């Protein structure tokens, strides 16, 4: 069955259809059996920037072990949660997956420490934000095709990522929800597919950061007893399973946390769709953001995030690795500024067009943690 026919049968009226795509900056003929968003997904997955996510820090560096999430495994988990939400809401799963796979592709090495460092160094040159950097990668820096720069993704994927880029960079505190931007000329909400990916990102990092911190011994199970979101999940798990070890309990609670948040989000989003009569793309755009947790769950999430900030993101071991990252990146930034001719050709072109600081930031942000620590690393995008 052709993708357009399949979409017409299964998608809700408020879902985005590939046949209605605005298209791409550089016109390309349609594909005989792949929708525009399937092609976007594949282009992102096959990009060098996506592959490098496997060796980029999510929260914890590789020095602390090999259990915790990398930027790549976090991305895949976000895509998994987002696809579940999309299927239940009859949204375009291919578009959701493409958006999810691209959402963190602009992250530099060493997680938020690397992002903060580059933002500081580029304070007089427009700053650095990993969401905006993702757009630079997929529109300019990746060189995968002979006829155009970048990946030539659909405008729906680019618009979704652009809206993320219009937000302030998310800090490691993660203590406040970030509303969709309301300062643009068109004061409209993004597609529901875009909203769902943001919600899935929140669900994934709240649950998995706690899991990683417990596994690494940075957090104790007892410390989470005061967190309602966690303690209620423990209670539900214990009603189903008896005599679990700490490790078994932790894994079961993480599963429960994700399922609970997904179920809550689906309920509140469906209610919002109905209450705003969002029966078309236009109605979704005119409505306030529809995909959000219930106020009760949102409040519980803030309590968990507050604990993670105090006890995990500000843990001495995390701060120590952050300081080391700042030192490494500082040395590499200074060396590249002194000798920009040693940059790979892609970044030398950026230096000519946009200045050396931006070119150096593009280059350093492309590195994995491992490559940043190697004095000889010069990847070509």
UniProtKB/TrEMBL annotation:
Domain HD stretches: 71-206
One Pfam family, short name: HD_assoc
NCBIfam families assigned: dGTP_triPase (TIGR01353), HDIG (TIGR00277)
Keywords carried by this UniProt record: Hydrolase
Basic and acidic residues compositional bias, start-end: 159-175
Region (Disordered): 22-41, 159-188
GO biological process, one term: dGTP catabolic process
Family: Belongs to the dGTPase family. Type 2 subfamily.
Domain of life: Bacteria
PROSITE patterns: HD (PS51831)
GO molecular function: dGTPase activity
Name of the molecule in the record: Deoxyguanosinetriphosphate triphosphohydrolase-like protein
